[in-house]
Write a structure and sequence with these properties.
The protein has one domain: Hemimethylated DNA-binding domain (SH3 type barrels). The longest helix has 5 residues. Strand 3 and strand 4 form a beta hairpin. It has 129 residues and is mainly beta. The strands form three sheets. It has a five-stranded antiparallel β-sheet with strand order 6-5-4-3-7, with no helix packed on it. It has two helices and nine strands; from the N terminus they run ββββαβββαββ.
């Protein structure tokens, strides 16, 4: 298989087909606890897109001087910032492993995950990302 081979998938979030490399290398996995490199929030990975798969409006709303490249994994997070819980969509280049290693406070966690051990969450049986 050639390294530049591409595939397509439908992104409900973007409402269109997205082209991506057939093989992408995600640094983090489902259930990992991560922290944003520049902004003060952390979260649990619950889905991964191999490349940017959100709307053009979302992408263009990011200031150009900090806008990440499209051709990298993007992570869906159940996020918290100490005041609020929300869903975040973050590029791989802007995430690091969370040094706290503790659980995340988010009301949707129990819908997707059923345990926390060793700094990561275990996906509920029967849940697909």
């Amino acid at each position: 298989m050639e390294p530049f081979e591409r595939a397509s998938f439908f992104s409900p979030q973007a409402g269109r087909l997205i082209e991506a490399p057939r093989h992408a290398h995600a640094r983090f996995g489902i259930g990992d606890v991560v922290r944003h490199r520049h902004f003060d929030f952390r979260g649990v990975v619950f889905d991964i897109d191999p490349v940017f798969a959100n709307t053009e409006e979302w992408y263009e709303a990011i200031p150009q001087d900090i806008r990440p490249e499209r051709e990298q994994p993007y992570y869906h997070l159940l996020a918290e910032n100490g005041e609020n819980s929300y869903v975040a969509y973050v590029s791989q280049q802007n995430l690091v492993s969370d040094p706290e290693g503790g659980p995340v406070e988010h009301p949707a966690l129990s819908q997707l995950f059923d345990g926390f051990a060793g700094g990561r969450y275990r996906l509920r049986r029967g849940v697909t990302h």
